[in-house]
Structure formats: C-alpha cells, structure tokens
Design brief:
The chain contains 3 helices and 10 strands; from the N terminus they run βαββαββββαβββ. By secondary structure, the chain is mainly β. The chain has one domain. Strands 1, 2, 3, 4, 5, 6, 7, 8, 9 and 10 form a 10-stranded mixed β-sheet that branches. The longest helix has 11 residues, at about 55-65.
C-alpha cells in the first residue's frame, strides 16, 4: 500500500503500546574526517525494530540477561520531545520515529548509483557506544529516523511504501 509522508505520520501517531515493525530507510552515514567519499554517499538499511518501547526497561532486561544488578538510570532526552504515548519525536518542526533496533537485516552503501562494498566504508564510519551502557556487552540500540528517510515500513503485516 502506498502512503504519503503525512499519512505515515498519522499512522505512527495512532500507534499505542509496543509494536514490532520492519523499516527500510535511506540516510547519510556519519563518517570520520578525511574519508574519500563525497556527500552523495547513502546508507540503505533494512531493520527489524520495536516501536513504543520503554528504553529504561529494555536496558534493565539486558542487565538481567547478563547477570548484572539493575543499576541503569535514564537520563533525559538530549534533543527533541517525545509525543506522549507514541513512537514519534518532534524537534525543530521535524518528526522522527524512535526505534529500538532488534536486528539489522541488511545494509547497503551507495554513491551516485553505484554500490560500494561495506569493507571500504567501515574504516570511516563513526560508531558510538552509549556511555550510559558501557557496562553492557550487548548495547540496546536506539535509533531516531527522520520521517523523510523512511522508504518502507511494515506494521501489523501491512507493507507501506512511503511516497
């Protein structure tokens, strides 16, 4: 089913509770200075995600799985405001989808229509491990996607193509 970005926003604002989804996004990867790639480099990600999750509970569950005492305390969101009861974050007139990455199914890098092998990109990627989760072996991966980066989303077994 093809939907507009406005319809996608309304759909996401109507979600309540925890929901699993599959998203396909196109973003600009964060690269280190001095990388040989120009600004046309794009990252196409296929991810299984959870929407409407409670971040602190997710980290505490991971602490328990790893046999650690539950010590995690949530710090406030650094940017944006979460729309109460939804997976949407508003920031400076833009909307973002807050997700917990369950599994990356595939990632493809491309520039000017040409696929670039990951092994050429990986040395230049900026990867961050959240300081507040430094005690965990398996980090709870939180991603906020700008709604314009979402190309497809599957919710409740319905595949939406965003135009």
């Amino acid at each position: 089913m093809t939907i507009t970005r406005a319809q996608l926003l309304n759909l996401l604002l109507s979600l309540r509770g925890t929901t699993f989804a599959r998203v396909v996004t196109v973003t600009s990867p964060k690269l280190k200075q001095g990388n040989p790639f120009n600004s046309s480099l794009r990252k196409l990600s296929f991810d299984n995600v959870t929407l409407g999750f409670v971040y602190s509970a997710s980290v505490r569950r991971e602490e328990a799985r790893e046999g650690l005492d539950p010590t995690f305390e949530v710090q406030g969101r650094v940017w944006g405001n979460r729309v109460q009861g939804t997976p949407i974050v508003e920031h400076k007139g833009m909307h973002y989808l807050e997700t917990k990455i369950e599994r990356n199914l595939r990632t493809v890098y491309a520039s000017q229509g040409h696929v670039i092998p990951s092994n050429l990109i990986n040395p230049f990627l900026i990867t961050l491990k959240p300081a507040q989760q430094a005690h965990l072996a398996k980090v709870v991966k939180l991603r906020d996607y700008a709604l314009p980066s979402i190309q497809r989303i599957t919710l409740h077994n319905v595949r939406y193509i965003v135009s």
